[in-house]
Amino acid sequence: MDARTQLEARTETDVAEVAAAIGDPSRAKVLLALAGGGALPASALAAEAGVSNSTISGHLARLRAARLLTVELDGRHRYYRLATPDVARALEQLALIARPLPVHSLNDDTRARALLRARLCYDHLAGRLGVALMAALLADGILQEERTEAATAPVRYLLTPHGRSRLTALGVELEHLPRRRSAVRYCVDWGERRHHLAGAVGGAVTARLFALDWLRNGRYRRVVRLTDAGRRGLGETFGLTPEQLV
């Protein structure tokens, strides 16, 4: 830990700076466009935010200054992504207390329903499907719930030895999870008001579902769709019912 990091660990955090950076509607759209964990160029983010290419540069600079975005160079091109999974987690939690956006068209309604059904929250599965999968993992004993004394996090989840064996058999990569990231975390899903699996294990499980072609990217950004193979696989492997797979 360098001297700057040590100093920051001893001081209060500047919540107002982050809130102000997120609070602009255009910047909020930029963050939500990246909440699925991918990287996008400035031109694509300008289109998502509904602003010009010249205007988006100022918004991106503000988000980088607040440590919400990072930039990656690929030759002459620059791609932006969320700085950490915690940014996506924070957006998910803000959505719990935010008012719904007005629906102005059939396309808006279709997109909203798709996001509620199944979407990516950074690199892990969210929406009704994500919540159903979390419940199935608990029912099967793959995850174990523990109560804590912390008021802000009264529950935590652990991957059991049985769960490690089950997920490894499915081909989930558990041996090389990022050390700096919590293995098992959860988000309170803003649509379902229940938990979906986050953390490194949540990301690894979702990556495996894509690799098996049980999940595919949907029509809208962040939206995922369940394939026929996925319906069969999630039913046979984790006991999800047809009603949970709608």
Comma- or semicolon-separated keywords:
alpha+beta, 11 strands, 3-stranded antiparallel β-sheet, 246 residues, two-stranded antiparallel ribbon, Arc Repressor Mutant, subunit A
Description of the molecule:
It is globular and about 50 Å long. It folds into two domains: 3-83, Arc Repressor Mutant, subunit A (Orthogonal Bundle); 111-245, no CATH class. The protein has a three-stranded antiparallel sheet. The chain has a two-stranded antiparallel sheet with strand order 4-5. The protein is of the alpha+beta class and 246 residues long. The longest helix has 13 residues, at 53-65. Helix 3 packs across helix 4 and helix 4 crosses helix 5. It is built from eleven helices and eleven strands. Strand 8 (185-188) and strand 9 (195-198) form a beta hairpin.
Strand content is 15-25%
Structural class: alpha+beta
| Biggest pleated sheet | 3 strands, antiparallel
**Fraction of residues in helices?**
40-55%
